Amino acid sequence: LVRMNENLPVTGDILPDLISAIECNFQPTTDYNMRSASYMLIESVKESNQCLEIGFRMLDICFSIYVQQCGLQFILHAIRTKWPSLPPVVQQLSKDRLINCLLSSPANNDIRSTPAIMEGFAQCIVAIVECDWPQKWKSFIEDCRSISKIGPSQAMVVLSVIGRLIEDVMEFELIEDPSRNKELRTVVLDSASQFFDLTLEMIKQSNAGEIPPSGAESSVRQRMLEKSYHLLNSLIASLNPRPHLFTKFVDKILEPARDAFKSGNIPVAEIAISCLESVFPRKASAKNYKPVVIFFESGRLNFAYDFIMMISLLPFDQQNYTLLKAATHLFFDIATCFCSFWELFEIEDCIDNWDSIFRLMLSLLKHPSTYCRMWCSLIFNSMKNCKKVYKIERFAPILTELFKYIPKATLKNGEPSKAVEPFRAYAKFDYETNAAFLIDYHRLREACEVFVGDWVASNWRRAYSVVMGWLDEILKNPAEASSDECFMTTAKVIHVVLDSLVDVIEDVKKTVFEYTIIQAKVDAVMNALQNCQVVNAVQVLVSTLSSLFPILDVSDPRIPGILCKLISSLTLGIDDPEMAEVRHHFTYLFIKMATVHQAHLIAHIELIWKEISAVAGQLSDHQKCAVVEGLFALCKLFKNFEQYAQLMSVTLQQTVEFWASAEIMTAVSKPENFLIYIGLGDSLTNNDSLNLAYHTRRKQFSFHVKILHSVISRLEVPTEIEDAKTGGFCITDVQGNLRICHPAAELFQMMFPTLFTFLRCLKGIYSVSSLKVVHATYDKAKLFDLTDAEKSAVMGKPHETKKFKDMQRQEVFYEKMKLFLAELSDHLQHLLIRCVFAFDWQFFALPNAASYVEHGIFGDLENLMDYRLRLFLRRVITPLSNSTTEVQSYFVNGLAKLVEHLNDRLIARWHLIMKKENACEFDDEQTKQQIFTENVVSLLTRELALFLRSLLLQQDPEKPRATPKAVELPEFNSSAMDTDANDEQTSSSNALSFLGKSLLQREVNCYASLVSLLLNMLSWRESVAAFHISQVAGLAILEAVEFCFIFLYILTKHYFQLQSNGILDEESFKHAYAFILGAMPQQCLNPEFVGRLYDLAVQLYEHFRNIYPNAAQTVLLQTTECSLGDLQAFDKKILNALENPDFKSCNKVTLKVKRDWFKSLIKKFLKPLKTHQVRQIFGELPPLQRPSPQPFFTSSISPNTLPNLFQES
């Protein structure tokens, strides 16, 4: 017991007891008390002065692996904690003893050859190297070479030593002293050539002689070979910061890779692939591409191309296929790098690489694996910037062959549930679900379409010739051609080519022969459509016809007949369910024609209207909306107010009557009424007639919302006053000023009372009181849940559409009802938000405009689910941030309520997540729910950051907008927070926007919630996650945090005024300062972000130093654990900087210097950045006072008087 007391020195020969304790500790039968006693003894020895000596004694080969491993841990601990204080003689002796132990290891000793022991030796040697090399251990590399030649076990240790040294110094920078790490980094790079030579020697050593077919020696040598290539990969990666060094080591990199590919050793070949991947940067600047040129010269990479080609021809085997996937990734990296490099340099000596790349692409596109075809096709995207290659005549044959194979390459033959051999094995290996497969398949098809379009733009004659041959084959017998597996993909390529020909239409028309052929093809397609009844064939012919007619002249007499035929396709086989896909396909084509090929349609608008009117009664709701959308897209060419108004009166008459009916107005007046009206108040029944009646009601709601959405999304109003005046869009007010009118405003205003009431009603159906009217036979949790698509989006998973025929009837009802409510709410919300901003002054002239915004758009948001609240923020953000201050003024009260609600909601969510994380036990279902909740909150937090950044900061500081009735606040100099290396270069200053200033007014009553929300987002971990995950999210957080900085900075400038109003007293400042300090460890992984926090902390310290002299110091002492002496020294430096006139000019003390002072002050707080966990603090800033709410007014003119200001022009 005396020996186990860590307060007493270790005396006597304790080794036998220590060995017993170690052995005891690894026995499964040891009880808790004995295990604890053993552990205490081991720890007492580890912390004693005899630790190093006892550690060496434990390395006797007669001891067990546990004892030797513990001995190595003792030695490592002594080196890391006591090495600098040891006498030089002891250091040298310890180093010699460690190497002698390694050298004397018997070749046949199983313990010494185990990875744990070898890694232990490596860790100890690396610890010495990091202290002594190169000053005290100049022969380190030569010693490594000597050790590696003793045997495979010793060579393994050397490989681990060099690998760990590179990781510690180059990759992770684990050495605590930055100057020592920088010194070692330089030494490692300078010694790169020697490390390469040593690694290559060990590769040859592991390959030397005939490897025994079995036994420990074979295993060790295989591990040595793999580890050698891993080290080679680390060495290559370490050169990436200095790519110019590649020119020195090109042969040393390629030779072992070539040997690995020839060896047939699959694990080694995979590592060799990684080595080559490290050479070729996917995204880099021109200076990083230039050193890579040497790899593409003189056919150096031919062996890699040949290897990938050979692997692609092997039959399916898990090992072979895993290697092929790695090789495909390598090929993608090589080809992508070469494309970028060729765009910059175009060196003739490298042109042969194109031939190899194209041939290998053709081989991979023929492979049964969709995954490999997809990765290969992505190279087409990289080739967009080097299209000149398509025009080089020597590559024309291989490119033509590639083009011809695109239909087969894009076959959907890898779907796991449907695939047959040879595709089945690859599909099962790569994809668990059809949805996962479809993601890769769509990427494959889109990339191939990019190639088709680019190749047509460069060689339209070749593409035209091939496509016309395909079209001839189809037109011979469409029904027979449709049975071919490539029929649909071939048709898709034809469609893309014909669409691309429109871009070079003038060149086509100049060749009379080709134009005559196109006219003949149009006639042939029209004839084929007369008698064709096969669904696929009809769909292809209709699609081909829609792509051919834009190539014709606008005056071509065939166009009226084509349009009649195409429009009749809307009702083709109206009673045939199989033809539904054809009808919906042409619905999409009609919108495309109306938006892309308007010149051909506008001349025949009367014919189009006549034909559509003839079939309108047979169209589905979806088709009606699409046709209306296409007509309004077409009508914008007229730029005529009256024509828009006439078109709306005809197309929307039934919709206006629907929303004006007393039945509908009553149904949408309250959530309870609406739920009863759509059938949820009655029991769940199998009565078909009753279900059909309720289904019809739901369809009416969907249709009459979607058709309004279709109109407003396509209706365009001239923005230039002259164009608007010419088209009759203007009226003149009493002062003689012209105002642009929106043609839909008057008609939509008639429906606004019902629509805005309905919008609030839809948000209210999720409230507890509303759900009481839902009949007990319904499962409310299923009925009012997120849709499957929304859940998949939350989890970041691909959504696989469920087939209703495979589901039970009740489940089908729940899915359709969830989809109905989600789509209806989303479309209506989007529609009304677009109307508000599109109608502009006409909307805000309405008597109830303010109520529509505050209670319709921003009302009942507390009932929205988190995911849909995120969508609401996304809908509002763009139009609101781009609108005028006059329009924004109507949104201030609504935004104030939104900010308060978001603050309460998110803080509650963050609390819940933390509480759940601290729970002791979770079952699988609770774990899934916890992950789902975290993901939803994460998405909402990111969206909110973007929302705040867009609204609260002025978008264009060069052109500040007028800010009527806004608080006059000084602009914050954000250039003072510039975190670039060059402090002389300042970023453009950002100022508060009109909304930002308005929301900070005391009358609005949301400043406390706003500041609380922003400061809490500083400390919440999602801020860091969003910053790193996405550039957009990262920018949003930066700007949101910067606004927080702006707000606090402004508070400091208006201290006397704000202090009297009680907005920020000393306790509130302390709380805010603690938030900022607490956020620093959270944001430590992003230097730019944490740099802003440093600058903010310094500036707040300066500004509040005289106001609250001890406040910031108290927080720093409590939070960062800095010493009082260091804090006083920092304060003295800041005081000198404030008082010295030379310092005030910032010529001598820049913000960067102050930042360095501050970082030095809190270095202990930030030292354990990678593991330090900061306690999260959430809540309002006490004691921020909330005054009684008051309405926000921005104009002396009442909205009720606006209509009287205008008269007809």
Give a written overview of the molecule.
InterPro entries: ARM-like, ARM-type_fold, Exportin-1/Importin-b-like, XPO1/5. This protein has 1209 residues and is an all-alpha fold. Helices cover 67% and strands 1% of the residues. It has a 3-stranded antiparallel β-sheet. The model is unreliable at 1-12, 957-989, 1024-1063 and 1168-1209 (pLDDT under 50).
Largest sheet: 3 strands, antiparallel
Task: Report the C-alpha radius of gyration, rounded.
Answer: 37 Å
**What low-confidence regions span 5 or more consecutive residues with pLDDT below 50?**
1-12, 957-989, 1024-1063, 1168-1209
Question: Structural class of the helices, strands and pairings?
Answer: mainly alpha
Query: Helical amount among residues, as a percent range?
Result: 55-70%
- Alpha carbon gap, first and last residue: 104 Å
Number of helices: 63
Task: Indicate the proportion of strand residues.
Answer: under 5%
Task: Return the average pLDDT rounded to an integer.
Answer: 80
State the total count of DSSP E strands.
3
GO biological process, one term: protein export from nucleus
Domain Exportin-1/Importin-beta-like: 116-236
Protein name: Exportin-5
GO molecular function: nuclear export signal receptor activity; RNA binding
